[in-house]
Amino acid sequence: MDHTPLDPSQLSPAAQRALGPGPGRMMVARGMMPLPPADNLAVLYQLSLDSDTTLVNAARVTSIGLPEKLLAGTLGDPKLDARIIHFFALLALDKASVFDAVVMNAATADQTVATMVARCGAREVDLVATNEQRLLRHPEIIGAMYMNRRARMSTVDRVVELAVRNNVRVPGLAAWDEIARSLQGGPATPEDDAAFAAAVTAEEDASLTSGSAEEVPPEVEEGKEGKEGKEGEGGEERKQLIVQVTACELRGSEVFLSAAAGTEQGVTKAWKAELVKTNDPRAPSIPGGEVVVLRVDRAHIIGKVRLPLEHVQGAPWVRLYLKEESISTLVRRATIGNAQDRDELIRSPIRTVAMAAVKSPAVKDVEVARWAGNQNLIADVIAYISGQREWTKMYGVKVSLCRNPKTPVVESSRMLPFLHERDLTALSKSKAVSSALVANARKLLMNRRSTGGGPRR
Fold first, then answer.
1. Dihedral angle of Cα 368, 370, 371, 373, to the nearest 10 degrees
2. Residues 233 and 148 in one domain
3. What pTM does this model have?
4. 90 and 181 in one domain?
């Protein structure tokens, strides 16, 4: 909200006198002149916009130091100007009674509430969520709640469901379609609240966001990116649980892995599980004669496996240490979580989750360059990256996309003229990408050599 001066003619006589020329202005700015509470706030707000910086600084210091009880009682007045409410609400955001008075005041501007709810705690978010009329009138409030890491998952799910039910699209959330669809997996539970709170407070891994997107990521340049695992045989009916490993972390002698699971109808839930590491990459036999085979290397466990549903809990080598997470929780983690969350959830076989990760506002260019060459990601993620011009203008992203067979041929062909001769030569000999792209690369290479030209700029 813009802080514009008040109309002096609309102020009380006492406030007009206090703002008149003379030493009285500095007395008011320092809180030394007795005025009714509403007049005091109006005068301090007006002085905070004065051209005299001394007055402005004094008025601000006085405003910050006003008693909580006085502010709470005055800012709840429905006759108070919305600009005054906005100014003092942000100065006293950490005072619970002031927050409650402002949020419950019908005169408070919707923009003020949106600004406040983005910075407050879980209790305050819950209070804002009770005013459904305001949320639907100004859906930016819902967006601010969603992006607030302190907001409970159960509260966020409730307001998102409200918007979806009333056909309201929340602006400012690039992954809104994924967020809306995530509710089909069921609402969040108190366990999800705890799991989400623990996940978003984890420390950032700087190694995932360091580097330059203009350079070809080493794992792509050296051909180390894994191939997509094949789905194992087995299983008949709904008793079969499909488990797809999506990420893992080495902790001492154990490998902790993230897995998405569902029935033959599709992947719908996600679990955290742990696999005791052995010298043999084959897991021990499961009761019933089936053997689960996972490809294990230093950083990844890749592949789809099937387990009889009744054996998951009791299998000695698979222990569920966290209850299933709702899809909405995963989507929110992917949207506002840290680099580790994105690195894990971008690999999810659940399209809604993976697309939320790639659309996260926190994504760094170097992450995109690394993802662009990952053949294990779903095709929709690669297609989305290839369609974002602010990403594809970076050289490392161009090379990674051209080497990824999941990149639409139309997009990869568009990037070929920008590749250096070394990368174009490697692509012309590649057996991993489509024959059409290889042919285009060879043709372009021949033209360059015959004309002495170079890559486009």
1. 120
2. no
3. 0.73
4. no
